[in-house]
Design goal:
It is built from twelve helices and ten strands. By secondary structure, the chain is of the alpha/beta class. The chain folds into three domains: 5-101, Orthogonal Bundle (Helix Hairpins); 106-229, Rossmann fold (3-Layer(aba) Sandwich); 255-331, Alpha-Beta Plaits (2-Layer Sandwich), CATH 3.30.70.1450. Strands 3-2-1-4-5-6 form a six-stranded parallel sheet, sandwiched between helices. A four-stranded antiparallel sheet has the order 7-10-8-9. Strand 4, helix 7 and strand 5 (200-204) form a beta-alpha-beta unit. It is elongated and about 105 Å long.
């Protein structure tokens, strides 16, 4: 049968079934006045060693048969149970080792601190955009959900430096802190910024007074859910068409149009070239809605004579395949 525990487990179940059949038939033969129900019941209580009283007094032959049934049943149950435990342990160990290997190879990924309601929505968005991420969570119930979804995760507290290291903080591109309390978000932000000065951090603040603390701790952006939700409700009330368009573009719903943020790298052929002379509009049919300079200057709807520089960040709208080509141009491919 080899060393496959799953195969051994199936053989154990089959053997156990055979023992039940043999025991039922055996009692019917040995104890002539027993029916099939009494024989089946006696077989089950015998091999399970539950200790219930016999349905009827046993003959000497019945007692000998019962002894052999107990021995074979107990050994088979122990063997099958052992294989089931082995399968469970090996599966857990294999899953943990496989996850550890994946975590070690992650680069330019995102770290989501806590898989709550906001964390779950963020993870789904990252999946939609085909981006790599790892979740830091210490709630066992939520970990079970992460396992069901097949998400990479690290079990532990996001405010712990060792846990952040396991999540690949040194090679991560971004981190979002949506833990239960503002204090935990501040600690997680502070630890992440200290360990990776270049990482982009977005943190949630429940209390308005915590916003400044999160910024001082190193957060690039702080989100106040109630304020953000209020603004969204207002915009939906006043400008529903605009919001529908933005969501359709941002989430690529029903249309092959996307809104993308693209960095102009040092090796890009666009550097030193005017917008009108680039292939962005005439070949790729992409609209450059804005350009954000390295200094933080925001240029809305740049003029056709705008000259691209290293470090420029474009906010572009266009077809997904065209945006992929533009990303390659900006990277110098």
């Amino acid at each position: 049968m080899g060393s496959n525990p799953a195969l051994h487990f199936r053989y154990g179940l089959l053997t156990l079934l055979i023992i039940v059949v043999i025991g039922t038939i055996g009692y019917e033969i040995v104890e002539e006045n027993w029916g099939i129900i009494d024989s089946f019941y006696m077989t089950i209580i015998t091999i399970s060693t539950t200790g219930f009283k016999e349905v009827r007094p046993l003959s000497p032959m019945g007692q000998i048969f019962t002894v052999f049934l107990i021995i074979s049943g107990v050994l088979t149950i122990a063997y099958t149970g052992g294989k089931a435990a082995q399968i469970f342990i090996e599966k857990s160990v294999f899953r943990r080792r496989r996850m550890e290997r994946k975590l070690e190879s992650l680069t330019d990924h995102y770290i989501v601190c806590r898989y709550g309601r906001m964390g779950r929505a963020i993870c789904e968005g990252l999946v939609e955009n085909e981006l790599s991420f790892v979740v830091v969570e210490n709630d066992q119930n939520k970990i079970e959900r992460l396992i069901e979804r097949g998400f990479l995760f690290v079990s532990g507290d996001a405010t712990n430096d060792d846990i952040l290291v396991k999540a690949g903080i040194n090679n991560a591109k971004g981190l979002v802190a949506v833990i239960k309390t503002d204090a935990e978000n501040v600690f997680a932000t502070l630890s992440a910024r200290e360990m990776n000065p270049k990482i982009y951090i977005v943190a949630r603040a429940v209390d308005e007074g915590t916003e400044s603390k999160l910024v001082k701790a190193g957060a690039n952006r702080v989100v106040l859910p109630y304020e953000l939700g209020g603004n969204r409700l207002l915009q939906l009330l006043l400008r529903p068409g605009v919001i529908d368009f933005i969501e359709s573009v941002a989430r690529s719903k029903d249309v092959d149009i996307n809104l993308e943020e693209i960095n102009v790298g040092a090796d890009s052929i666009l550097i030193g070239k005017a917008l009108v002379d680039s292939p962005i509009r005439k070949d790729l049919n992409i609209i450059v809605a804005a350009i954000i300079k390295d200094s933080g200057q925001f240029i809305y709807n740049p003029k056709s004579f705008y000259i691209f520089e290293n470090g420029d960040k474009m906010i572009a709208i266009g077809e997904s395949k065209s945006l992929v080509k533009l990303t390659e141009l900006c990277m110098g491919k």
